[in-house]
Amino acid sequence: MTTGRKAGAVILEIDDISLAFGGVVALQGVSFDVRAHEIRAIIGPNGAGKSSMLNVINGVYHPQQGSVAFKGHRRHVVDPHEAARQGIARTFQNIALFRGMTVLDNIMTGRNLKMNSNFLQQALYWGAARREELEHRARVETVIDFLEIEHIRKTPVGRLPYGLQKRVELARALAAEPELLLLDEPMAGMNLEEKQDMSRFILDVNDQLGTTIVLIEHDMSVVMDLSDRVVVLDYGRKIADGTPDEVRNNKDVIDAYLGVAH
Amino acid sequence: MQFFFEVLIGGLLAGVMYSLVALGFVLIYKASGVFNFAQGAMVFFAALTTVGFISMGAPFWLAVALALAAMVALAFFTERVVLRPLVNQPQITLFMATIGLSFFIEGIAQLTWGAQVHALDLGIADEPIEWLMGNTGMNVSKFDLVASGIAAALVAVLAVFFSKTRTGRALRAVADDHQAALAVGISLRRIWVIVWMVAGFVALVTGLLWGARNGVQFALTFLALKALPVLILGGFESIAGAIVGGLIVGASEKLAEVYIGPHVGGGIESWFPYVLALAFLLVRPEGLFGERRIDRV
Q1: Between chains, do A100 and B167 touch, taking CB under 8 Å as contact?
Q2: Pick the CATH number of B2-280 from 1.10.3470, 1.20.850, 3.40.50, 1.10.760
Q3: Where are the domains of chain B?
């Protein structure tokens, strides 16, 4: 589904990133870029460094070498809380929701950075704090409508089935109105129907909200359907970069996935 | 029957004082999953700092304000020196660190202000309420009633703060998942400082009330132990639980002393709450209001 309509300017530029944990090399000189409004997939066999790449982008990991430029601000080291402030939101491979809180409260935390009443007003639930709370609650409702989770608003997240938890996590990320959305295996562990729902939501987000999306996914048919361009990592190196069709026919990629006789 | 109610009310009011201590624990536990062993030391430190400034000639409100400033400084210190270096460590490590912190705070408090017992006068007499005495013949302390009022106000503010505001929600979010909290743009450091400041404020209120009642002395640090049965009964992460737990402990220990005590030779007030808590652990280990954790395997 490469339509070519999404030739936006480069919004995120990864330049020569290397990351190692002690002696284990996770990423080695990886560079690629992401254009505004596109869906960019990162694929690769297990242990290829896909999640590490995402963690570098939003500052969970600090690379030994290289830099990340988001909207023209080039950084060597990013702070996760700073990345969120700049408009990067994400979901996690193993669902990182606030399990004891309701769906609504979880999504409200996504609005955290948009709210700015001071501590004293909040302590007294007074004036700006109260007004702000109601205003943001309304914004959260639109996200809830968008992802069709109205019926579970008040349910504690820990009680929801896996597929719905994934959707709530996406809702929390969307509540922050991000410019760049990082999705770490949004469809892992889902059945076919849930995968189709999630694919539809990802396309809707990209289409209707114009959000730029970087996603990691194992299901190849999903990746080929959703993404505009694909980066392929293997053992921490970039081995291919291009449209789904280009990547599919790349010899290195086929070798990496199917193995090759030495 | 009138005697029964007198004991019950006295117990409930004393229970509110226990609730206050437990509240400090709940706040920090809710926000960081750490059982803060230093809460008792903080109560002692806050009360001693207040009477210290008063004995230097400061007016009461100024002394309280200065003590509050000291608690805020302590919050920043704790975040910088204890919590930040131990981020992502197992909870038991943090728990051990708070034990160390409690010795440190106790030491600093006594080094600065000396180890004598100080009296603290809040200007509220610990005497029976005459109206109630005259009309019903029940002996209920005016001091206890005022203390309960203060505690109730404090709890109401905290409850709204936790459930309705951005910072309150951020506090709960941090308690649940550090990684996810960072990803939605919550600054862990800021949250930790805030929660220790709030716990410090609660410690100050607790210290003033307990100090006025029993004298400001080292024994205040043992209040931490009194909070344990309250927390087990009420649940570690619930503000409502701390209140109800405190009331149950207060009422049951007084009633037990009066009605069961004589049959077993008396003196059961001091250990009855622990037995109650033990029995409770067998039946409902997460407490009355605690969260029952369901782990998927």
Answers
A1: no
A2: 1.10.3470
A3: 2-280
